[in-house]
Amino acid sequence: MQSYRLKIKIILGLAIFIATGMLLIDVVVSMSNHKRLLMAEMDKADVVAGVLAGRLAQDKALSQTLLTQLSTLAGKARMDLLVVDASGEELLNSKPESPASKDLALMTRQAVLARVEGKGTSGRSLGLLGWRYDYFLLTKPVRSEMGQVVAGVGVANNLTPFYQDVFTGQRLIILYFLLNLVVLTFLAYQRVVKLLMKPLQRLAKRAEEYKDDESFYFLSERKSDEVAALSTSLNSMLRRINADRTKLQNMVVALEEANRSLVQAQQEVIRAEKLASVGRLSAGIAHEIGNPVGIVLGYLDLLKQESLEPGERLDFITRSIAEISRINTIIRQLLDLARTGVEEHGKVHVHDLLTDLYASLKDQPLLASMTFKLEFGAEDDTVYAVSDKLRQVFLNIIMNAVDAVQASGAKEPGMLIIATAIVSTVLTPGQGEVPALEISFTDNGTGIATENVETVFDPFFTTKEPGKGTGLGLSVSYMIIENAKGRITAASRPEGGCVLTVFLPLAQAGLNNNHQKVK
Predict the structure, then answer these.
(1) Could you tell me if 132 and 41 are in contact, meaning their C-beta atoms sit under 8 angstroms apart?
(2) What span, in angstroms and rounded, lies between the C-alpha atoms of 100 and 82?
(3) Within the chain, what is the greatest distance between any pair of CA atoms?
(4) Is 383 within 8 Å of 348 (Cβ atoms)?
(5) pLDDT confidence band for 517 (50 / 70 / 90)
(6) What does the alpha-carbon distance between residue 401 and residue 357 come to, in Å, rounded to a whole number?
(7) Span 107-129, mean pLDDT?
(8) What strands lie across the sheet with 79-85, from one edge to the other?
(9) Residue 467 region, left (φ>0) first, then alpha (ψ -120 to 50), else beta?
(10) What is the pLDDT of residue 338?
């Protein structure tokens, strides 16, 4: 279909081009012939007027017989005749009803008075080649043998028959023009097809049949024309494409090999990290559980002594129960850390949760010497989470802040500020920023050492004295926040203390659904 459209466009283009050229030639030739024939008519009028003036000069009496003969002669020449005497009176007007009669009479009288010949035109109409004059006027004075003007003669050459003859000839030229247009367009189209269309079609067909393993691509029958140059350029381009394809294939193979090596190295790093985590976890479990077990075993050995007083025996039993309770607490926190059960999330208003938590803690002796501030700057505090788990996270962070303030031994009063704000942040690596609720816990305690910032959320990591902490509180908090599709960070403050910040996706962000099940 596209080929036919192109052929039609070529035919129309050639036809328009040839028609324009031939039309311009016709206009130039027609105007030239028109001018030449018009000059011939003017010369004819001059000859007729001269003959009539000569006959009138021979007859001094200007007899009516002579005038009649002159009128007949002018009629045969298809001209109007007007004769006036020396005073300007009309002696003969062959066609007084003619449109040019008045103009001819005026010019003839002027010729008698001025004693010179006169030429002019009368009437105008629109013709094939533009505006044209209907009559050509020519006047001459008639002189006697003594040189005196005795009369005036004027002829009006009617150009309408002349224009009709020109139009008749123009119709023949138009027929010739159309015939030449068809013939020349056909010949030009055949030439274009042979020189351009067929070679291009061969190139297009060759391009469709081209295969990557071929050495020769586009061939031309002619070795020195533009199509041959195009074939050579296409061959050079395809050779470069093949060379680039080979380089690209080699690069793809190299990238695949590098990717396999990278994946293998990544798996080895993950395996090593898992082993290291298991080692740290095992060491922590052995330390945290081994110490209470050793203490219990020691008390049991002491209880074997029969010489113990009832009070001492009761004290040893009470101490053993306390150590066993500590072991039970560690095991329960480990289970919370590794919990994989399904928990139902719901809408939680963080401001209400923090306010309730503050109300339950403000009268505790631990917070008696601390300044506790709530600065709620977030306009929206609704998140999807497990309310009890989120309360556990906030309680762990607050209790760690209280312990850090008391361990600092500073003279200034302790401080804990809980603030909220709406921010745009990345909650999941590899995804864009989303609206989130930021909850920051700022204290002026001991802070976090730079080397411990990366490990503060690891299981069993603690800076507290032995027996005062298991190192599982922040690890469990980290897992709870991660299950809520949030994140938690820790950082030291330059002026002292630290800031723990929790980021949770807002309920309106659409990251979770009502009653969402999260493992």
Answers:
(1) no
(2) 11
(3) 193
(4) yes
(5) very low
(6) 15
(7) 83
(8) 90-93, 79-85, 149-158, 130-143, 118-127
(9) left
(10) 55
Tens-place pLDDT, residues 172-203: 778 888 888 888 888 888 887 777 777 777 77
% of the chain beyond a pLDDT of 70: 77
Please say if the pLDDT value at position 275 is more than 70: no
8 A C-beta contact, residue 138 and residue 155:
yes
- Residues 83, 89, 92, CA angle at the centre, nearest 5°? 30
pLDDT value of residue 223: 57
Stated pTM of the model: 0.40
Contact 381, 349 (CB under 8 A): yes
Query: Which has more pLDDT, 415 or 53?
Result: 415
Whole-number Å distance between alpha carbons of 169 and 178:
15
List, in sequence order, every beta strand (DSSP E) within 426-506: 434-443, 487-492, 498-505
Using a 10 angstrom Cβ sphere, with 0-12 exposed, 13-18 middle and 19 or more buried, the burial of residue 348 is buried
Q: How many residues does the chain have?
A: 519
Q: Give the mean model confidence (pLDDT) for residues 312-322.
A: 83
CA distance 42 to 137: 9
**Which residue in this structure is represented by tokens 């060491």?**
283
**In whole angstroms, what is the distance from residue 362 CA to residue 301 CA?**
44
Q: Strand pairing of 90-93 and 118-127? A: unpaired
Backbone phi, then psi, for 377, in 5-degree steps? -100, -5
What percentage of the chain's residues is helix, strand, coil (to nearest 5)?
A: 55, 20, 25
Please spell the DSSP secondary structure of 251-277, one letter per residue: HHHHHHHHHHHHHHHHHHHHHHHHHHH
Residue 352 pLDDT: 92
Q: Is the pLDDT of residue 489 over 60?
A: yes
CA 505/CA 422 separation, integer angstroms:
10
Residue 287's pLDDT is 55
Q: Coil, helix or strand for 349?
A: strand
